[in-house]
Amino acid sequence: MGMIQTLRRHWPEYLMEAGELAVFMVSAAVFTALIDHPGSPIRQAVDDPLLRRVITGLLMGATAICIVHSPWGRQSGGHMNPSLTLTFLRLGKIAPSDAAFYVAAQFVGGVAGMIVALTVIGPTLASPEVNYVATLPGTPGPLVAFGAELAISFVLMLTVLTVSNMMRLARLTPYFVGVLIATYITFEAPFSGMSMNPARTFGPALVGSVWNALWVYFTAPPLGMLLAAEVYVRTRGARAVLCAKLHHANDKRCIFRCAYPTT
Predict the structure, then answer these.
(1) Average pLDDT over residues 231-251
(2) Domains by residue range for the chain, with CATH
(3) What is the CA radius of gyration of the chain?
């Protein structure tokens, strides 16, 4: 299909992808403000930063699970991440035109979510403790952040490919993703801010003018996920990848090059 024909047929999925990441960004901003802003009762009650990250991780992991399980996530596949989409493009499970519109929609969603968050939260979003929920390198610096982003992206993608292509575990894929997000926010966030997602990083960078080490988040996540795809293909074969959806056992249409069993 040509680009225009693809847009006419699949525009609902593109809007869903934008909406899903927008919801994720609003959730991240609201939860961070509630947990880390000095004026918040939760922040005053929980002094330990590790415990606050545990709480944030659980909330954001649950948010990701809910989004993938939502009607939008079940239809679009719940990517919300250009790195994920580009990896499935490399694996031949998504058409190039669909991948282009998905990536564009994800960036729009990241920015839109931050604009909504700024409207809802106001100046609190710009406070140093919240800082537009920007993903920034920790004290060890950008190179360590790059390595950390590469590693967590690799593990996430390899987990998605392994679990989603095993019929007895495929339904649990969103939960594996949610657990990894919660774990990463708890333990990895001090090194890179825990992004894995160029569009998730770009939204705060644009809205808050927080451009520090943007190259880390535009290179490490896609490289890590593409490397995971190479490992999976070399060990299991390209035909082992059934589809690009994170949740496929539903009655929503699938626009991907799908080999998922219908019975």
Answers:
(1) 93
(2) 7-240 (1.20.1080.10)
(3) 18
